[in-house]
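Box 3.1 A note on notation
Throughout this textbook, protein chains are presented in two layers. The first layer is the amino acid sequence; the second is a token string describing backbone geometry. Keep the layers aligned when reading.
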Amino acid sequence: MHKALKISIPVLLMLGVFLLWKITRNQQDPTWLTIKNLKLSEIETLEKSPNKLQLLFERFHGKETSDSTNAIKLIDEPYVPIMEYSKFEKYIEALQKEKRILISTVEGGGSTTLVSRLAKFIAIEDARILNVKCSPQFDLIYHKNYIGEVKDGKYVKGELLLFWEECVLRPDKKFIAVFDDFDKINPETLFGPDLWENLNNKKYKKFVAGEEVVIPDNFYMISTTLSAIGSRIQLHNEHFKRIGHNYYLKPNTIDLALYLERSRTALDTKISKEGSTALSDKEKKQIKALRDPKNVLEYLYLFEKTNHTIEKDISKTSQLAQWSEIRKLYLPEDRDKLIETFISHVNAISPEKKFDRTNFEPIFYTFKNKGLMQGSSSLATSFKVFKEWGFLTEFVVAICFALATALISVYLNSKRKRKVTKFLTRSEEIYMGFENRTMGTDMAINKLSELKLEIEEHTKGNKISFPEAIFFYNSVRSKVNSIEITKNINATFLILMDIFLDDEELSENEYNKLIAFLHKIEHTIPKNDFDSMKEQVHRAWEEFGEEQ
């Protein structure tokens, strides 16, 4: 008994030291980990999604669509915007459903680029787009120009009323008006009180100067506002009822990461074509910074955390987004300038609230400690909470009991990690089975669906955390989407082969179309599937080619 006690005391002391280290150690910042594990190659951008974009275009336009209209070409001038396909799809679907929407953002939010591409996607032709750039103090002039005015005793219609008449004359086409910086004027003054009052009410007729005005069904409208900069009025629900639901375009770290990746690719391409000697001194610094994972991680983390701090401590409208000047300040030597840019911007918009370099100290701490978040240890967090509540003394007593129960926590944490590893391994095994053709498409999808149900049960039973469950759901969904895309491409390929070989002859034109199809989907499906399709095409050409 005595011997056992002598052995257990050192063990308990070691456990006590371990637990003390555990509860006083700061935790990894989830934001740091998210950015660090960001896989840009897996992000579905507009540039990577021409087929989806074409399908979205055809769904939106229906019978108006012609085979010659290329959706990606509509939005590629002067370049295809850097954004996720899902973001563009979200706004197109909102416009299809609501007809009128408001997009608000902060400086550098990218609303100008987004709205211009949305307008072109909807109207197709520039002539069917009405752009209105709003400036303060010109409300009445806008009313005269766009609604109308009396001249020489006769009412002369403005551009918007004439635009609506054009919509009525061409009901098979779609038209759109874009009101940029709409909060810099009073919308009610622009439309006039009578038209404004019934703008959202389809039951009542609308009149201007005694003449009925029709707002056509083929008319769409986007309004934009730049939060906290030059706003003349504060838009509220009465405005939203008439000009559309307010969608906030927040600062986007993924867009910024994609921009850096595109910049790096452009410089790499230049090097491969012309050699590194063709780079200017500035470009040499840029490529070095862009190729440095640590520098890119810290830059993106600073962007994300600074905007989070601004939203929490100052205001959402004081944030600075990715397409502002800060997108160019990714060099290590520009770090101070980047910080000063944020400070100057916030203090210019919200001078009544203090924002300085002390707000960046937690970020610098994370840099120095490889992703650890300052003041995030279990002990520090508990002290803060109990001090605020006035229970600090009781907490000190309770901490002793917590040390004993920590043993159980360590065990449960270890058990949870094993479950996490198990789920990850199983999902990877299923997907590898699909890629290696040891498992069919439907079976792989079914097994991944079963895995999702298991994850749901474990989440309900608190066996894994909710963020972990979300991570698994996204991972499984990504794999299911990839499998379904491969399945659809396989089906399309088989249909093409059946059509082209229906006459038991493969013309050179048909063969070239199959080769072009293969080039288009080469990086979309697993290599085994691609190689199999390529082999089938070559065999078909050898057996049924017109030259044979």
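The longest strand covers residues 219-226. The chain is about 60% helix and 10% strand.
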